Amino acid sequence: MTILVTTPNGSVGRYVTEALRDRDDVRFLVRSAAGAEALGAVRGEVVRGDAADPDTVRRAVAGVRRLYLAHPFAADQAAVETGLALAALDAGAHRVVKLGARPFTRPGMVPDPVTGAHDTITARLRDAGVPELTVLRPDRFLQNFLPSAAALAAGTLADPGGADAARGHVDTRDIAEVAVAELLADRPVGGDLDVSGPEALAPGDLAERFAAALGREVRFVDVPLDAAWRAGLAGRGVPAWHVEGLYGLYANYRREGVAGLGDGVQRVLGRVPRSAAEFAADLLAPAVGVPRTP
């Protein structure tokens, strides 16, 4: 059995890699020498190249039987992920564990480019008849707040997702553990697995969890989805299509309000998900120099 891991340095992929780096039957696809260096020492094979390049894909999928399929949000995401999966199927793969996104369930929601890309890819995989398909559908990643650790330590959680948008914020370590379990299982659970944290938290609630771990006040600031927000992203070099994708996603968070919780962690791992408080104590506090409480 050979397992191919794509995007092994991503928010979820880095933890998938950590769980599988000592196995000799795992292959990791990285884009560059810098990606290989970030990967660190692994026992299995490392393939370098662009996931959109047919020659790279052929080398990556040769002999693969199971595939962890992930790709950053990009203009060509649907084409790249679908191409990888179909090439893997042609090479003999029979199991795909795809990293997707939690769907919006409120009536009247407008499709957004981020979740829409995942819907397109999943539909193509089903049409292709993947024998064993698991689609991980996580809510908002807690790890996405780590780049704002300095601002949080200074007392501000600024977020454009809406003050009343209570989400099942999920620790990406849990997503990775579910992915690895599905990759390695003799009989995977399969199907759509909604993955979330144990409670739906509005941004103000999340700020309170972070404040407790950091030992200081953290105040939520609602960032409006306006021209200034767009200009700020553009000024940091974010392409216009990416800004529009994020706008659609955050607008849907605001429209949906309170999201339901997923049971994927319990179904696959038999335990409750990690909480926002655990994430903050384990990862956020150390990121700003606050020692973890024993």
From TrEMBL:
Instruction: Name any one Pfam family assigned in the record.
Output: NmrA
Which parts of the sequence belong to the NmrA-like domain?
2-229
Protein name, as recorded:
NmrA-like domain-containing protein
What is the protein's species of origin?
Streptomyces mobaraensis (strain ATCC 29032 / DSM 40847 / JCM 4168 / NBRC 13819 / NCIMB 11159 / IPCR 16-22)
Q: Which InterPro entries match?
A: Ergot_Alk_Oxidoreductase, NAD(P)-bd_dom_sf, NmrA-like
Matching PANTHER family: PRESTALK A DIFFERENTIATION PROTEIN A, PTHR43162
Q: Which domain of life is it from?
A: Bacteria
